[in-house]
Write a structure and sequence with these properties.
heterodimer, A: about 120 residues, mainly alpha, Helix Hairpins, about 0% strand, B: about 325 residues, Four Helix Bundle (Hemerythrin (Met), subunit A), 13 helices, transport (chain A), transmembrane (chain A), NUOK/Mnh_C1-like (chain A), membrane (chain A), transmembrane helix (chain A)
């Protein structure tokens, strides 16, 4: 297995995610692009788990570096990141739905960040 | 170029291609489905690289839950069938930054790994991952579960507007969402026609029922007249004639006399006088001397006037006899 293939795929996916976050105006599409970026990071973690360990196969590790005899930390980090992404999507979609209920739109350009809704209504 | 390389390249092409469609598609729902394809291809990449559990968790959580959640959000906010033209911002800065990030990362990683070949790790199973998660990584695991709980509660609190909402006194009443009934004149006209037809039908039915009731009342007019009077009159009749029947009669012995004649000094008469439903515990006390004495004293006293009347009668009968004797 040539390790460069999954790494390049992951970097391309991350670039697509960055492009989507910057390009998209709809909040749900921005969340989708964020999912793409998270998956790119997961892919890098799993690929590192598969390659770096095989490089270090003959190296005698320090005791503190490997608290368990056979490390498989990349996959576990990937699992944790999947759980984090699920929590992020849940809260993010709750925010998006609440914003839609208040403003009848999910366009990120129109979100006013520096003043409260009440003040906006008073001043405008 | 091995089989694993070919698989990685093919799956990577699918993932990157559908990822590009996710960020460029003008259909909101189609972007979600391209995301499904992209995540599925990434799960295939995990499988090739020997991370089985991560691959299945990816399919389960991402494809099964996260994308469904995103599509639900699309449906709840706005569900356009055709393409939407207001999804995107100006293209230039996003393209520049995205291409820069992609080129930089690709150059970095390609320079780091070159075309080095690594041996594929043995396919991992869930047992090894489980040992790791519940051995070395148990504290992050627990923290993550608490974070999931917090995210759950936060999502619930966020989606309920009545929790923790600050009341704004100066804000005007929020405009209600447009009612489709109000917008369409045709719907309103049809509803009014239906309402008028219903009112006419109700009036007709009511008129027919009133006519029928009037006819029935006219037909039954003489019949119900004696009915309401009857029970009371019968009751009064019964009262009068029962009282008449129950009054003391001259020729017959009164009730007291009948009871008197039946008195046998002893306990049996007292028992017959007593009501049956009295508790048996009180009966001996009543059977005592006092009750017996009262009964024996009472009954002759009550019966005496009758007897005297009868005696007077006999006296009066006797007087003419004496007169007759005198005359004789």
């Amino acid at each position: 297995m040539h390790a460069v293939i999954p790494y390049v795929i992951a970097s391309l996916l991350f670039a697509l995610g960055v492009y989507g976050v910057l390009r998209r105006r709809n909040a749900i599409l921005v969340l989708m692009a964020v999912e793409l970026m998270l998956n790119a990071v997961n892919l890098i973690l799993v690929a590192a788990d598969a390659t770096v360990r095989s490089v270090l196969a003959g190296v005698r590790p320090e005791a503190w570096a490997y608290p368990v005899p056979e490390p498989r930390s990349g996959a576990i980090f990937a699992l944790f990141i999947i759980v984090l992404a699920a929590a992020e999507v849940g809260v993010g979609l709750a925010i998006v739905l609440q914003y839609y209920r208040l403003h009848r739109a999910v366009n990120l350009d129109e979100v006013v960040l520096d003043e409260h809704d009440h003040e906006k209504q008073v001043t405008s | 170029m091995t089989v694993a390389d070919a698989l990685l390249l093919a799956l990577g092409l699918i993932a990157v291609g559908s990822g590009a469609l996710v960020v460029t598609s003008s259909h909101l729902v189609r972007a979600g489905f391209y995301l499904v394809v992209s995540l599925g291809a990434i799960a295939g990449l995990y499988l090739v690289m020997g991370a089985e559990l991560v691959a299945w968790v990816q399919v389960l959580v991402y494809v099964g839950a996260v994308v469904v959640l995103l599509l639900f959000a699309v449906m709840l906010t706005r569900a356009p069938i055709g393409p939407s033209d207001d999804l995107d911002r100006p293209k230039a800065p996003a393209v520049i930054i995205g291409a820069g990030v992609g080129f930089g990362l690709t150059a970095l990683l390609a320079d780091a790994f070159r075309w080095t070949e690594f041996e594929l790790p043995p396919p991992g199973n869930a047992e090894r991952v489980g040992e790791q998660v519940f051995g070395a990584w148990v504290l992050p695991f627990e923290v993550l579960s608490i974070l999931l709980l917090a995210a759950l509660i936060g999502a619930i609190v966020l989606s309920r507007p009545d929790l923790g909402a600050r009341v704004d006194p100066s804000a005007p009443e929020p405009a209600p969402p447009p009612d489709p009934v109000d917008e369409s004149a045709e719907v309103v006209a049809r509803l009014e026609r239906i309402a008028a037809r219903q009112a006419a039908a109700q009036a007709r039915v009511r008129q027919a029922r009133a006519d029928q009731e009037a006819a029935e009342a006219a037909a039954n007019a003489p019949a119900p007249e004696p009915e309401p009077e009857d029970p009371r009159r019968r009751a009064a009749h019964n009262l009068i004639f029962e009282a008449h029947d129950a009054r003391p009669k001259i020729g017959e012995p009164g009730q007291a006399e009948v009871i008197d004649s039946r008195i046998i000094p002893g306990e049996s008469v007292v028992e017959s006088e007593e009501p049956i439903e009295r508790p048996a515990r009180q009966q001996p006390a009543i059977e005592g001397n006092v009750v017996e004495g009262e009964l024996v004293e009472d009954k002759p006293a009550a019966a005496r006037p009758d007897k005297s009347g009868i005696e007077g009668h006999a006296d009066r009968l006797a007087l003419p006899a004496s007169d007759d004797e005198k005359e004789q």
